Q: What sequence folds into this?
């Protein structure tokens, strides 16, 4: 599990550019991972193929060039506005209307948006460190020092952007323009939302400088023409599952997803591959349980989320005694990037601090598993981390108590499978411009070793000890108790 091999794998993943779900680039990534797995002695590799309605920007893989925005001023001038890019899953068409700025506290409705192009600011961060720190199981010193601060990351922008797109479509808007307060070049190719819902209007992103132009143009009564060029077509994608037999058929599952658009999103696949190699090198006598390494699809198309699909299968199998633990790992080894005041223009800019990005490590209601995670974190010096029982606030009267783990681990956790997960949400998650500099593979290696140690410390424990209170939650669900809401949106708004 050396850093140079991890670096080469991350370069293969990140260097492929936009791997949108079901695209040729994405399938090529899956096929490469599959070949790496087939080369590991002892692994049994299979695919689970399923259908989706894919959205592919034109030119293929280039969000920045897949959109266009032209402003027509009141005095008749036409201004072509440079873009961050097209909004994923926006309607492929060209539409025009009066340009109107609707602040974030103004609901998008028919009376203010119909027939118009809406200028909307990117959602401001709403999560504070205090939410994560409250009830935390372990907090590193760097994170404890941030009590009272806002977690200034795009962690939860997906849902308000999705809601704006739905509202604008229902209101009959001609289009929508989302404005980030960051320089266009730093966030070019930004990929949100990843809900996988096909929207009913064209939509694009602009940067901070372009926002100023559009605000002035809207105030002067300008019109705007919004274009998106994308191919929407039926397609398929697949999950790849590699099974490594152990002494027991009970499985410990380690998973990440395969679609992404940066070196950060998704490098977890490299971590899962590294763990598969490490475990396969052990004699079967040193593997008390069967290991299953899952490379799931659909995270950039969450209406067809492959981890959700896989979790449903595992949920059905848990009561048969063949599933012991699930672990999801995402966005590893991230270098810290902070938004800071911009010295030479409006808004802010992203600046690499030289430090390590904070990540959260959710772990469900299992005392054995929680102790193993805290011990592994301390042993490997993984950097700024908050070990949490869940992301967000607990909800009484539902199972599980915390409905979210912040990423693909949510799907395992929500299906009441014993779960722990690694997740971070840096600005570099969706912004390709930072390239390979966005990650530190040595830190990534430490995180992977910590995951390995969690598995090693619990792998021969009784299933009941690993599952902890998940067993009570499963019994409560069977008795009719409410389950945390499904986080997935529909693929087609008309169904």
A:
């Amino acid at each position: 599990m050396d850093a140079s091999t991890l670096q080469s794998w991350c370069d293969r993943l990140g260097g492929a550019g936009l791997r949108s779900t079901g695209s040729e680039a994405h399938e090529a990534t899956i096929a490469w991972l599959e070949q790496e797995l087939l080369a590991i002695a002892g692994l049994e590799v299979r695919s689970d193929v399923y259908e989706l309605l894919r959205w592919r920007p034109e030119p293929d893989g280039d969000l920045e060039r897949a959109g266009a925005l032209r402003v027509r001023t009141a005095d008749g001038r036409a201004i072509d506005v440079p873009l961050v890019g097209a909004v994923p899953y926006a309607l492929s068409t060209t539409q025009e209307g009066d340009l109107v700025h609707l602040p974030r506290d103004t609901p998008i409705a028919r009376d203010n948006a119909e027939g118009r192009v809406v200028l909307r600011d990117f959602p401001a961060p709403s999560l504070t460190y205090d939410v994560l720190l409250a009830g935390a199981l372990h907090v590193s010193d760097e994170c404890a020092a941030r009590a009272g601060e806002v977690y200034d990351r795009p962690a939860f922008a997906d849902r308000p952007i999705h809601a704006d797109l739905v509202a604008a479509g229902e209101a009959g808007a001609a289009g929508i323009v989302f404005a980030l307060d960051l320089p266009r070049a730093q966030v070019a190719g930004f990929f949100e939302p990843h809900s996988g819902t096909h929207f009913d209007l064209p939509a694009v992103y602009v940067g901070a400088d372009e926002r100023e132009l559009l605000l002035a143009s809207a105030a002067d009564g300008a019109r705007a023409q919004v274009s998106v060029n994308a191919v929407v077509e039926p397609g398929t994608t697949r999950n790849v599952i590699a099974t490594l037999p152990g002494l027991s058929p009970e499985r410990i599952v380690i998973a990440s997803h395969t679609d992404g658009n940066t070196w950060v999103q998704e490098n977890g696949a490299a971590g899962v591959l590294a763990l598969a190699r490490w475990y396969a090198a052990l004699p079967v006598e040193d593997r008390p349980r069967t290991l299953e390494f899952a490379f799931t699809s659909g995270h950039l198309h969450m209406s067809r989320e492959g981890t959700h699909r896989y979790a449903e299968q595992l949920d059905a199998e848990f009561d048969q005694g063949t599933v012991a633990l699930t672990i999801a790992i995402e966005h590893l080894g991230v270098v810290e990037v902070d938004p800071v005041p911009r010295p030479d223009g409006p808004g802010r800019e992203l600046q690499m601090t030289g430090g390590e990005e904070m990540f959260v490590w959710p772990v469900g209601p299992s005392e054995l598993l929680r102790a193993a995670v805290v011990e592994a974190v301390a042993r490997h010096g993984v950097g700024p981390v908050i070990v949490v029982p869940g992301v967000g606030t607990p909800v009484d009267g539902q199972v599980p108590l915390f409905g979210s783990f912040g990423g693909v681990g949510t799907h395992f956790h929500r299906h009441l499978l014993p779960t722990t997960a690694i997740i971070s949400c840096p600005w570099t998650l969706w912004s390709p411009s930072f390239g390979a500099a966005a990650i530190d593979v040595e830190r990534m290696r430490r995180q992977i070793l910590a995951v390995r140690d969690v598995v090693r410390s619990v792998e021969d424990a009784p299933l009941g000890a690993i599952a902890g209170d998940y067993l009570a939650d499963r019994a409560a669900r069977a008795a009719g108790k409410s389950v945390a809401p499904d986080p997935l949106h529909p693929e087609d708004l008309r169904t």
